[in-house]
Structures
1.
Amino acid sequence: MESWILLAMAPVFLGLIAVEAWYWKDRRPVYSLRDTLSNAALALMHQGADAIAWLLVIGLYYAVYQHRLFDLPGSAWTIAGLFVAQDFFYYWFHRAHHRIRWMWASHVTHHSSERLNLSTAFRQSLTYPISGMWLFWLPLAWLGFEPKNIIAVVAINLGFQFFVHTEAVGKLGWIERVFNTPSHHRVHHARNPKYIDRNYAGVLIIWDKLFGSFVEEDPAVPCEYGVVTPIRTHNPITLTFHEWIAMFRDAARPQQSLGSRFKQLFGPPERGHSETPREPRIEFRDPRPALNAGDTDR
């Protein structure tokens, strides 16, 4: 159901991408043809894997639902409660995918572009089911929310997040206090030391403010997008699997204890010692525009 909801919204997404690309055409090289095509390919791969994953795990959701704590009627208040609860669990899903390398191996794909535009929202990995994305929504079924409604709300949450992947929208006044906005999400995609691993919100920014991960966009510190160690490719296969390969290579290095191997897989991403994982935070700044190598269509 999630894939079908997002596919139904595709005409809106594609139309807004076209408008945004036109807006930036004579201003700044925010869009690149190869980068955008790469994003589209990754989206198609992700949607296929996501649909298969839901078919495989939906039975588990209904099994958990049979042992639910509460019988929650299908009302507007129930759906509203589900929306808030799912957004809460999304925050922890997102935070875990930045702080546990096994999960970062999937999520790094989304952060690998050195551009930020609406098409970046499509830049997803087909390996999310392997990294355990579906686990984070299981408590909702145990609480008493029907699985079909959980899937629908997950899709709505992800659909909302499409709109925060843009540089074309500035600050939004009081909305910034409660909701995730383009300004907040620009911080999340930035690799500046001040901004790394901040603003994990899906829809409500209040979780970041409650749990100490919120940072406001600072006009004095322009966002530099991408990962600290750039991935210089537009190949969707490489973008999908490069960190998995690096992670297993690090874990397989000889003369390591079992504990060290475990930490390479499930510790913070910066534990990696190969050339592809994120490096420790550094203060160096490259003054050149943050463009992917090989981008010539400007």
Note: The two ends are 38 Å apart (CA to CA).
2.
Amino acid sequence: MAEKNIQILDQQGMLQNYAKAVLGMLPLPGAKAEGLPDRTLRIADVKIDANNLAEYVKVCRLRLRDTLPITYPFVLSFPAVMNLLVSKDFPLPAMGMVHMSNKIEQIRPISVSETLTIDVHAENMREHRSGLLVDLVTEITIEGELVWRQFSTFLRKQRTSLSDEPRPEKVDDSPGSAGELPTTTLKVTGKQIAKYADVSGDHNPIHVSKIGAKAFGFPTVIAHGMWTCAAALGILEGRLPDATTYTVDFGKPVLLPAKVAVFTRKTDSGWELALRHPKKEHAHLTAKIEAR
């Protein structure tokens, strides 16, 4: 994809982007394009902020090491992702989009001392029975070497030509579906998720404001999907291969405060994970970790 824009974003820019996201909910004629923008946003010369990394591993209950947690580059790329989502040439409004799934490919571990180049673009907008899906793709290179890539799939709920199709039957065979005991449990508080919002820069109202959450149909604030994505890995730290693919499907949101049950299962190719409600047993997250 041809590069058409290079931009470095700061924290103030992030706050402005959320204001743009709210404005994008309004029906302004001609404010949105029809197709995906044919451009890549780049953040160049990214150095790891040791204090931010330390706060991240603390709030996600991970260990501080000399290499980055596999999920941490999401935080580094988030300003570019938001910038793309709120741009006028992005066809879907950012607010109200649902993070459906996430796939991270770690080609090799990233050292905390390395300088990164982060590229973000959108691709593959397609219909779903519940709306439109689009992939936000992030690639991280170091001196031209691809070391990390992510596909974040978002859903914009609306009617499509597939909306009247029958709902496919889902079979849940992920860890915990057969009534086995959890490997461990996690307590999640509003204070903890507010801290994650500060660390990650993701101050979406559904995560930090009860009023904002109710405006989008939630009874209270919910945990970030990428917090659960990171925290779920805590139990497997030290047992993951350097070259790893981490695929996550998000289920029902975690309403705060909460206790979630964590289930793990060893497979021939790696691990399977699930985060579930301890009583209702529905899945908040199901995941696979496989060696590349």
Note: Residues 172-292 form a domain with the Thiol Ester Dehydrase; Chain A fold (CATH 3.10.129.10).
3.
Amino acid sequence: MQGQGHAQPVRRPPHDAVLVLVRVVLVALGVFSAGFLAWAMLLRLAVVTRRPVDVGVLVTAVAADVLSIVLLGSEPGDDVHTPGGYLGITLLFGTLLGAVVYYLAADVRHFQRQREAYTAQQYAYAPPASPYTTGTMPPHTPAPSAHSVTPMPRPPLPQPPIPAPPQRPAPARIEQVRAELDELSDYLRKHDGHREGGHEGGR
């Protein structure tokens, strides 16, 4: 099975100023020659486009010019006063008018398409923009592997409760409790002393 061949590269079209100059010169050549050289512009069009239609128009214009020359040459005298002479003049100027209109329309359309094809070709062969020249780095996405398996998330392990440190009473509170105990001891000692003295006096 054969693949498709590569497309032929499109040549860069001439500058617009050059194309306008060539068109003006060829049209002026046909007009100033009274239509006898109208085929020159069609010849240039057929060579540039290489289309069978343009070649057929060139052959028709050349045949019309030759026929008009024959009709005018068969006219007796210098003045045109026969139907053949009038037909030759009409055919000559009609061919000139048709050649000018057809040449300008076909030539403009051809080079416009060539310019569009050349622009598309330039875009097709343009190198990709480098991230080092544009200043932006493309995002890096790793390709997924066929053997890579997404790990399942594990539940968190229960943490043992941390015992709270024993709270120690403040030193001032200890001193206060100690003082109260001392006062209570003195009070009990005195109270016991009074009770012992009362028992001895009763005896």
Note: The helical segments are 16-32, 39-49, 52-73, 83-125, 131-134, 171-202.
